[in-house]
Prior knowledge:
The structure holds two protein chains of two kinds. By secondary structure, chain A is mostly helical.
Amino acid sequence: MRLSGFNDAAKQKVFSLQEYFVLSAKSIGFIFRRPFYTQDVVQQMDAIGVQSLTIILLTGFFTGMVLALQTSVQLATFGATMYVGRLVTATMIRELGPVLAGLMVAGRVGSGIAAQLGSMRVTEQIDALNTLGTDPIKKLVTPRVLAALIMVPVLTIIADVAGIFGGNVIASTYLGLPPSLYWRTVWEQIASGGFTLRYIPVDFVHGLVKPFVFGAIIVTVACYLGLNTKGGTEGVGVSTTRTVVVSSIMILIIDYFITQILLAVL
Amino acid sequence: MSEKPSEPDPSIVPEILPDEEPVTGKVVRPPDENLGDDRRKLERGPAQKPHPEATPVVQVENVSLAFDEPILEDVSFQANEGETVVVVGESGTGKSTILKLLLRLLVPDKGAVLVDGQDIVDLSFNEALKVRQKMGMVFQSAALFDSLTVFENVAYPLREHTELNEEEIEARVREKLEFVDLEPDKVMSQMPAELSGGMRKRVGIARGMANNPEIMLYDEPTSGLDPLTTATITHLIMKLQKELSVTSIVVSHDIRSSFRMGTKIALLADRRIAYFGTPEDMRKQDDEYIGRFLGGY
Lengths: 266, 297
C-alpha cells in the first residue's frame, strides 16, 4: 500500500517533468512559427528587461564594490592590491554577473509571470484562450521566453559593467589605485583569458552562455508552474513561491555544470 | 449561418401536437388530464419552437469519463440546429465537464462527441483549435482577459481568426456590444475590472459571439447574478438563438431560467442523464428525483 503510494508519487513527478519539457520545447519551437505575437514580445521585453534595470544596476554596482573591498584585504597580504581590477572583472563577468542577474530576474520577473499566468488559470482565462482557438503556449509562453532570451543577457552585461564600475569606485577612493591602472588590469584580465574564434574573449563566452540558459529556465519554470496552478488564489501564491525557489536553485545547479562544460571545451 | 424558414414541418409538429392545430410561433403541450384547462396550453416564445430541419449539430454519444473517480457514465444527448439544450443538475455532477468535452479541452474515456457530424475525440491539437472556432463559449466568471480593454477582448477572436481590417473589427465589436445592450462608446475603452458582474458577463457573451459561431456554450450564465440581471442574460441567450438561430448548450442549475430558454432539458444526476427531452414533458415525468429537482416549479 505504502509502496504503491510512493510509486504513484514518483510517476507524478516524472510526468510533470515530462510536461515541463514538452512545454519548453513547444514554446521555443513556436518562436519560429506563425502567428508572431510581436506586440506581446515587445511588451514582455519591457516587463522583463527595462523594468528590471534599477535592481540590476544596484545589484551589479554594490556587488562590484563589495568584491573590490573584500579581495583588496586578501590581496594586500600578498602585496597584490593592484590586481583588484582583474579579480572583480573575472568574478563579475564569469560568475556573479550572470548568476546574480539570474536570481534577481527570477525573483522579480519569474514570480510575476507565475502570478499572472496562475491567476489567468484560476479565473478561466487560459481556458478562454483555448476556446478562442489560441494556443496559450504560443500566446503567453513563447513571447516571454523570447523576451527573456534577449533581455536576460542584456541585463547581465549591464550588471557586469555596473559591477566593474563599482570596483573602480572602491579602487580609486578606498585603495588609492589610479583609475588608469584599474582599467588596465580590467583589460588584462579579459585578454589573458584567451580568445575563441580569434576575437571573442573566453570570459565573454562564459558570461553570455549562462544568461541565455538562465533566462530560458526562469521563464519556462514560471510559465509551467503558473499554467498548472490549482486551488484558487491560494494556489497562485504556491506557484509563485515555488517558481522563485525552483528557478533559483536550478540557476545555481546549472551554473556549476555550464562552468564545468565550458572550462572543458574552451 | 442562414435563417431557416419558420413554418413548422408537418412531419414533426403532429407528433408534438396530437390533437391541436399547429399554431405558428407557439408550441402547445399535449393535454394533461391532471392539469386544469388553463395550464393545458403552455405558451412559449417562438424561440422554443422545434426546428423544421432537425440536423444534429452537437451529439454526445455514450460518453464516460473518470479522473480519480467516475464523473460521467454513458451520457448521451444531442442538440439540433437552432436548439437550446440546457444541462441541469446539482452542483458537482460534472455539468461543466460536458462543456469541456464539447470544446475538446477534455477527451472522454469512452464514447463519441460529434460536432457537425465530425467526431472530435481523436483530433490533433491544431484540428481541435479549428473546431473550437465554430463555438463561442461564455464562462461562468466571464473570463475576460484582464490585461486587455473591453474592445480588445471582443476583438480578440476577430484578430486571431479573421483577416478583417481595423475599421471592420471596430464595426463588428460595436455591433456585438450593442447586441448585448451595452453602449459601445462608454464601455469599449474600459478595463474588465471596472465593470459590474452583469456587464462582464455581457461582454463575455459579446466576445463569444464576435466570430459569429454556429454553436454557443454557456457555463452557468446566470449564477451569482441578481434576479433582474438573470432575466436580462436569459433574455440575451434567447435573443441570440431567435435572431441568429445559433445552437446553444447551456449548463445551469437555475431551473427557472433553464425552462425559459431551453428547447430541451438534459438532467444530469448521479453521473448519468436522468432525463432528456422538452421542458414540458419533464414536468409530467412521474419521477421522484425530477419532482424534487423541479421543486414545484
